[in-house]
Specification:
Blueprint (H helix, E strand, L loop, with lengths): L5 H11 L4 H11 L6 H10 L5 H8 L7 E2 L2 E9 L3 E8 L5 E7 L7 H16 L8 E7 L2 E6 L5 E2 H8 L4 H20 L12 E3 L5 E3 L11 H6 L5 H10 L6 H17 L10 H4 L3 H4 L4 H4 L5 H10 L11 H14 L20 E5 L3 H13 L3 E5 L2 H10 L4 E5 H4 L3 H15 L2 E5 L17 E4 L6 H14 L2
Parallel strand pairs: 10-11, 10-12, 12-13, 13-14
Antiparallel strand pairs: 1-2, 2-3, 3-4, 4-6, 5-6, 7-8, 8-9
Helix pairs in contact: 2-3, 3-4, 7-10, 7-15, 10-14, 14-15, 17-19
Length: 477
C-alpha cells in the first residue's frame, strides 16, 4: 500500500489503533530535529518499543496484511508450520494478550483446507479444561482465516528441553499426569489428539502443562488421506498401520505420550528425529525404542514400568485409557513424596528448582530475553507489562522474586518502587529494581531494605539481576 503523505500514514496508525495518540505525538516531537518521514517515524516507534520488530518490518515494506485481524493486532510470530502460523497478539480494545493461529495463505483458496481449519477451531471451543489451551473465537478477515486462543506465557516442551536437557523424575511425572488428565477429559467428549509431540504441549508461567492443537482429532489417519491434507501426524498413521490398530485409536495418543515422558525423563530422543517423510514412515522407527532403564539406570523402576507400558508396540498391551494411566501416575507421584495433582492444588516445585520470578517489563523483546534466561537457569517466569496487574498478582499469589524494569515504570519509578517494596515486605518477596541509564541517578534517592536491591551500573546484565535475587535469598535468616 502507498501512503500519500506522512499525515495520511499517521491517520492510518491511529485508525487501526496500532499506536496510541500520545505515543505518536511523543515520537513526532523527537523527529522534528532530524527531519520527518514515514520510514523515520516507523524507526522511531520501533526504537521507543511502540511497534514490535515484526510490525515495523511489515510497515517498512508497506505490507499491511498480517498486521490486524478483526479486533486484534499481531505483535510477533511465535511459530510456523506447514498448515498455519501462530502469532502473539493483543486486543485493540483492552490490550489483552492473545494467541492467534492463522491459516497459511496458500491454503486460504482451498475450501477443504479452510473447512478443516475452521473445524479445528469449533472443536477446540468445546474443550474447556485446565490442561488444554482454550480456543475462544473462529474468525475471518478478508481472505485470512484465524483462531484466537489463550496466550500461554511460557514455552513449548521442545524449547524447554533445549534449555534444561531433561526434567527431574518428579517434574516429568507431574507433567505426564497433567497431559493424561487433558486427554482423559477430551476422551469424555469422544475426542483424541492425534498430533501429540513436544511442540504441542506448552508449559505456562505457573508451571502447568497444557495441550494445544487438536487439529487432526477425528481425522482419517490413513497415509493416503494424510498426504491429501497436510504434513502432520505421519507418525500416527505409521504406528496404526503397522500394528493393525483402527484410525483414531485413543491408545495411539498414549503411545506418543509415552515418547514424550521418555524424553522428559532421559533428555534423549526415543527414536531419531528426522524431517524425512520416508524415514517417518518406517515402522521400525517406533518399534525399536531402547528400553528406558538402559538409557538411564538411575530412574525409579516404577516410572520405567509406566513408560514401557505406554510404548508397547501391541496396542492391547498398553494402557487402554488415559484414566488408567492417570491412576498409575498419581501413585508414582505419591511414592516420590509429591502432592497429587488436582484442580484445587498448585503443586510446589521440587527441591532444587527455584520458584517463580515475576518480572514487570512491557517491551516484548526484553520479555523474551528474561523468559529465556531465567527458564534456562531453572526458574519459572511470569512476565507482566502492567504494574497494577503485577501488584495484584504479587498479593494473590506471591512469587519468590520480583524484578522491576524502570522503563516499564516510567516517570513514576520512584513512587511505584516504594509501593512495590511495601507489598514485598508483606509477602516476603525479594525485589530487584533495574534502573535504565537515563534513570540511574535515582539510585541515591531510593530507600532500600535487606530484601531489596537496586541495579544501576551499566550495562545491567541478566546475570547480575539473577545474582542480586539469589544474594537476597541466600542472606535471608
Amino acid at each position: 500500500m502507498h501512503f500519500s503523505s506522512l499525515q495520511n500514514f499517521q491517520n492510518f496508525l491511529l485508525k487501526t489503533k496500532l499506536v496510541e495518540s500520545s505515543q505518536l505525538q511523543q515520537c513526532m516531537i523527537r523527529l522534528q530535529s532530524r527531519g520527518q518521514s514515514i520510514d523515520g517515524l516507523i524507526r522511531e516507534l520501533e526504537t521507543a518499543h511502540m511497534l514490535t520488530t515484526y510490525q515495523a518490518a511489515k510497515l517498512m515494506k508497506r505490507d499491511l496484511d498480517g498486521l490486524l485481524l478483526g479486533k486484534y493486532k499481531l505483535l510477533y510470530r511465535n511459530a510456523s508450520g506447514s498448515f498455519a502460523r501462530v502469532f502473539r497478539g493483543c486486543s485493540v480494545d483492552d490490550g489483552r494478550m492473545i494467541g492467534i493461529k492463522v491459516l497459511r495463505s496458500r491454503w486460504a483458496e482451498d475450501p477443504r483446507k479452510v473447512l478443516l481449519f475452521q473445524r479445528e477451531g469449533e472443536l477446540g471451543k468445546r474443550l474447556k479444561h485446565k490442561n488444554i489451551v482454550p480456543i475462544y473465537e473462529v474468525g475471518s478477515a478478508g481472505n485470512q482465516h484465524y483462531l484466537t486462543m489463550e496466550f500461554v506465557e511460557g514455552g513449548n516442551f521442545r524449547e524447554l528441553m533445549k534449555a534444561r536437557g531433561k526434567f527431574s523424575p518428579q517434574d516429568a511425572t507431574r507433567y505426564a499426569l497433567e497431559i493424561s488428565e487433558g486427554l482423559e477429559y477430551a476422551a469424555t467428549l469422544g475426542v483424541t489428539h492425534r498430533d501429540l509431540k513436544l511442540t504441542n504441549v506448552l508449559l505456562s508461567a505457573q508451571g502447568v502443562a497444557k495441550l494445544v492443537d487438536f487439529g487432526l482429532a477425528g481425522q482419517d489417519a490413513s497415509a493416503r488421506s494424510l498426504d491429501e491434507e497436510v504434513d502432520r501426524a505421519i507418525e500416527y498413521a505409521t504406528l496404526e498401520r503397522g500394528t493393525g490398530a483402527p484410525d483414531n485409536d485413543p491408545r495411539s495418543d498414549l503411545y506418543f505420550l509415552g515418547t514424550i515422558y521418555y524424553e522428559l525423563l532421559t533428555g534423549k530422543h526415543p527414536y531419531p528425529p528426522t524431517k524425512s517423510k520416508d524415514e517417518r514412515r518406517e515402522f521400525s522407527r517406533y518399534s525399536g525404542i531402547p528400553p528406558i532403564q538402559q538409557v538411564d539406570p538411575t530412574l525409579p523402576p516404577s516410572l520405567c514400568k509406566i513408560v514401557e507400558k505406554l510404548i508397547r508396540i501391541n496396542p492391547t498391551e498398553r494402557y487402554q485409557t488415559p484414566a488408567m494411566l492417570a491412576r498409575d501416575l498419581r501413585t508414582a507421584l505419591a511414592e516420590l513424596n509429591l502432592p497429587q495433582g488436582d484442580d484445587s492444588v498448585v503443586i510446589a516445585p521440587p527441591k532444587g528448582i527455584s520458584p517463580t520470578v515475576l518480572c514487570v517489563e512491557e517491551r516484548l523483546r526484553q520479555q523474551d530475553s528474561l523468559r529465556e534466561y531465567f527458564t534456562k537457569h531453572g526458574y519459572r517466569v511470569l512476565l507482566l507489562g502492567n504494574f497494577e496487574r503485577a501488584m495484584k498478582r504479587l498479593k494473590s499469589d506471591p512469587p519468590k522474586g520480583l524484578v522491576l524494569m524502570s522503563d516499564a515504570l516510567g516517570d513514576e519509578t520512584e513512587a511505584l518502587f516504594g509501593q512495590a517494596q511495601q507489598a514485598c515486605q508483606q509477602t516476603g518477596t525479594a525485589m530487584v529494581l533495574v534502573l535504565s541509564k537515563s534513570r540511574g541517578s535515582l539510585k541515591d534517592q531510593l530507600t532500600t531494605t535487606k530484601a531489596t536491591r537496586v541495579l544501576s551500573e551499566q550495562p545491567v546484565t541478566l546475570r547480575s539481576i539473577r545474582q542480586a535475587l539469589e544474594e537476597v535469598w541466600n542472606s535471608a535468616p
